[in-house]
Design a protein that fits this description.
Length: 238
């Protein structure tokens, strides 16, 4: 289940790409197999990094293709990389968890090469606000969401670091009702047959990708997409 449009990143052989807050590696794995890149994943959680590695081990080598991956536990506020290290940085559904997200944006800008590309996604404001209203526990948990982003303000914060905005889109329109349902039934969400049924539908949709739900998602994404995705370019060095 990808939030980012990898075609927007113009991945090419030989690049070094970073998935910051990689979780279990969905975008990192996708970039690794999109082009012959050195894919680097960083996450604050050791268990997530371990699961990302297991994901790589699941896939066979692509006939000796020179893809490389590296994984690390790390803090987005002080990344263990030199300036101008990465051609592409992806940061998906991460900044909403970080109190000092502007410092994370500064670090991303520092490690992104001149001419590099950045893709950032955060929860879209109005679907997220419904979740916060329906269930205190949705966000008020350790490691939970600490803010609801205004996408235009986030865009301006990133532009203020010298990056140029290129495109915006929305994603996961079919997922918003699932999260609203979970929040409405929050104390019983783990045992709710309705939540389980919707979850099975989403898994089926992700695995089978039938034409009907592809069309429904194209309609739903701009209307009620769970995530907003922003793309930026870093200007070439002068």
């Amino acid at each position: 289940m990808l939030t980012m449009d990898l075609d927007e990143l113009n991945l090419s052989d030989g690049q070094r790409v970073l998935d910051l807050g990689c979780g279990e590696g969905r975008h990192l794995h996708a970039m690794y197999f999109k082009a012959k890149v050195h894919a680097v994943g960083v996450d604050l959680g050791f268990d997530d990094v371990r699961k990302t590695r297991e994901g790589f081990e699941t896939y066979p080598d692509d006939e000796g293709a020179p893809n490389r991956f590296s994984l690390s536990v790390g803090n987005a506020l002080a990344l263990p990389f030199a300036d101008d290290t990465f051609d592409v940085v992806v940061c998906s559904e991460v900044l909403e968890h970080i109190p000092d997200y502007q410092q994370a944006v500064k670090e991303i800008t520092r490690i992104l090469k001149p001419g590099g590309k950045l893709a950032v996604s955060v929860p879209r404001a109005w679907p997220e606000r419904i979740c916060w209203t329906l269930a205190e526990g949705y966000h008020n948990t350790p490691g939970g969401h600490v803010r609801i982003f205004n996408a235009n303000n986030l865009k301006a914060d990133i532009q203020n670091q010298g990056l140029t905005f290129s495109r915006r889109h929305w994603a996961h329109g079919l997922h918003s009702p699932y999260w609203w349902l979970q929040c409405a039934l929050w104390p019983k969400r783990d045992t709710s047959k309705l939540v389980a049924l919707y979850h099975r539908f989403l898994v089926w949709d992700i695995m089978k990708r039938p034409l009907l739900t592809r069309l429904l998602e194209k309609i739903a994404d701009p209307l009620m997409g769970k995530s907003v995705v922003l793309y930026f370019n870093k200007g070439a060095a002068r």
